[in-house]
C-alpha cells in the first residue's frame, strides 16, 4: 500500500521557499535596473539579476526530479473546478520557472553578453550574437516575466482563500516548521546540493623584404573588457598604421598606430554613447590614441616584441606588445596583443573608476596585414 504523506517533504519545502524568494527579488530588480542609465550600478544589478535567474534554473531540475520521485500530499477536499485551476496553475508555474531564466540566458547570448555565473563560471552562449534576435528575446523575456508574476499572484490568492475562508490547513503542509501529528512526524530528510559546471574552452619563413604597406581592409583592432566578470568584446572600426618590418633585420623595424577613438564599437548603442564621453575617452578633447614604437626584440621562431609609448587622453605610458609574424605570399601577417590598464590613462573616471564593475585590465588584440615593397 502506497503511503501518502500529510505534508510536503523537507527538500520540496526548502526548494519552494528558496525559489519563491529568488523570484520575488529578481522581478522588481529587473524592473528597476531596466530604467537606469548606463553606470557601474546598472552593470552590477544586471549581473545580480542574471545570477538569480541561473540559480532558479539550477534549482528547477532537482525540484522537478524530487517531485516526480516523491509523492505529494493528497489534494484536500474541494470542488472539481477549483482542483483543475490549482493543478493547471502549478503546471504553468513549473513551466515558467524554466522558461523565464532560459529566455533571459538566450537574450544575453543574442545581445553578445556572455553569462558568467557569480563572476567566476563562464556559461556557454546558447545562440550567436544577433541584435534582431536579442530584441525579440527581450520582448519574450518581459512577457514571460509578467506571466509568471500573474501566476504567482493567482497562487497566493488561492493560498489565502484556503487559509482565511476554508481554514483547511493547505498552507501548513508547505510551511517549513509546521507540526503534524502523523506517523511520519519528525522524519529526517536530507537535501543534496547539485552543482552545474560549464566551461568554455578558448586558443615563417623570413625573406629579405620589407613589409610596409598596410592593408587596412584586412586589418583589425579588437578589445575585450570584463564587466562584473563577463567578457565583453568590442573593436575600433577606424585606425591607421605605418609599419617598416624586415624579417631579416627585425631590430631595425618600426611602427606607429593611430586609433580613431570615436569609431569604437563597445557592443551596444548605450555603451558606445557612454565611452566617447568625458569620463571615458573624452573624444572631443582627445580624438585619437597613438602608439609609437621605440624598438623591436626578436624572441626566436616567429615571435617578437614591439616596445614603445602609448598615449591616450594625454597620458603616455611604456608599452610592450608581443606579436607573431608569418609571410603569406607577398603579404606579411602580424598577430599580437597586450593588456592595457585603463586607470593608467584615466579611462573611466568618477563612478566608472570602480574596477569591480568594469575591470582595470583591457585585453587588446591586433591583426595587421602588410604588403611587401621591393627594397632598393
Q: Would you mind describing this structure in some detail?
A:
- The structure is a single chain.
- By secondary structure, the protein is α+β, with helices and mostly antiparallel strands.
- The protein is 34% helix and 27% strand.
- It has 5 helices and 13 strands.
- The strands form 2 sheets. Strands 3, 4, 5, 6, 7, 8, 9, 10, 11, 12 and 13 form an 11-stranded antiparallel sheet that branches. Strands 1-2 form a two-stranded antiparallel sheet.
- Helix 1 runs antiparallel to helix 2, helix 2 crosses helix 3 and helix 3 packs antiparallel against helix 4.
- It is elongated and about 90 Å long.
- It starts with 9 loop residues before the first helix and ends with a strand.
Rg over alpha carbons: 29 Å
Q: Unreliable segments (pLDDT under 50, ≥5 consecutive)? A: 180-207
Helical content class = 25-40%
Determine the number of helices (DSSP H or I, runs of at least 4 residues).
Answer: 5
Mean model confidence by pLDDT: 85
- Choose one word for the global shape: elongated
Number of strands: 13
Structural class: alpha+beta
- In percent terms, what proportion of residues is strand? 25-35%
Query: Order of helices and strands, N to C?
Result: HHHEEHEEEEEEHEEEEE
Distance between the termini: 98 Å
Q: Main beta sheet: strand number and arrangement?
A: 11 strands, antiparallel
Amino acid at each position: 500500500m502506497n503511503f501518502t504523506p500529510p505534508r510536503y517533504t523537507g527538500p520540496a519545502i526548502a526548494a519552494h521557499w528558496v525559489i519563491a524568494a529568488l523570484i520575488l527579488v529578481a522581478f522588481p530588480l529587473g524592473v528597476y535596473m531596466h530604467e537606469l542609465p548606463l553606470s557601474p550600478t546598472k552593470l552590477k544589478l544586471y549581473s545580480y539579476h542574471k545570477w538569480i535567474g541561473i540559480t532558479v534554473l539550477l534549482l528547477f531540475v532537482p525540484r522537478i526530479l524530487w517531485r516526480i520521485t516523491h509523492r505529494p500530499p493528497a489534494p484536500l477536499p474541494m470542488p472539481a473546478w477549483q482542483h483543475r485551476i490549482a493543478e493547471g496553475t502549478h503546471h504553468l508555474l513549473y513551466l515558467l520557472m524554466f522558461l523565464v531564466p532560459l529566455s533571459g540566458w538566450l537574450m544575453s547570448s543574442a545581445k553578445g553578453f556572455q553569462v558568467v555565473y557569480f563572476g567566476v563560471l563562464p556559461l556557454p552562449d546558447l545562440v550567436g550574437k544577433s541584435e534582431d534576435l536579442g530584441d525579440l528575446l527581450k520582448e519574450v523575456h518581459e512577457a514571460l516575466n509578467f506571466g509568471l508574476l500573474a501566476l504567482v499572484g493567482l497562487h497566493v490568492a488561492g493560498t489565502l482563500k484556503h487559509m482565511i475562508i476554508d481554514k483547511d490547513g493547505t498552507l501548513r503542509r508547505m510551511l517549513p516548521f509546521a507540526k503534524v501529528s502523523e506517523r511520519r512526524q519528525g522524519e529526517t530528510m536530507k537535501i543534496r546540493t547539485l552543482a552545474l559546471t560549464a566551461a568554455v574552452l578558448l586558443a615563417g619563413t623570413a625573406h629579405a623584404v620589407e613589409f610596409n604597406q598596410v592593408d587596412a581592409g584586412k586589418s583589425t583592432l579588437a578589445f575585450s573588457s570584463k564587466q562584473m566578470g563577463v567578457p565583453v568584446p568590442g573593436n575600433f572600426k577606424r585606425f591607421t598604421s605605418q609599419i617598416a618590418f624586415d624579417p631579416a633585420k627585425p631590430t631595425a623595424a618600426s611602427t606607429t598606430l593611430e586609433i580613431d577613438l570615436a569609431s569604437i564599437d563597445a557592443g551596444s548603442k548605450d555603451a558606445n554613447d557612454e565611452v566617447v564621453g568625458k569620463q571615458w575617452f573624452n573624444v572631443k578633447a582627445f580624438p585619437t590614441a597613438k602608439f609609437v614604437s621605440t624598438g623591436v626584440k626578436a624572441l626566436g621562431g616567429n615571435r617578437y616584441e614591439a616596445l614603445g609609448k602609448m598615449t591616450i587622453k594625454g597620458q603616455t605610458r611604456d608599452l610592450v606588445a608581443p606579436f607573431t609574424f608569418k609571410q603569406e605570399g607577398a603579404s606579411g601577417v602580424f598577430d599580437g596583443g597586450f593588456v592595457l590598464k585603463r586607470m593608467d590613462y584615466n579611462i573611466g573616471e568618477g563612478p566608472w573608476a570602480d574596477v569591480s564593475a568594469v575591470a582595470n585590465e583591457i585585453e587588446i588584440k591586433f591583426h595587421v596585414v602588410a604588403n611587401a615593397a621591393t627594397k632598393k
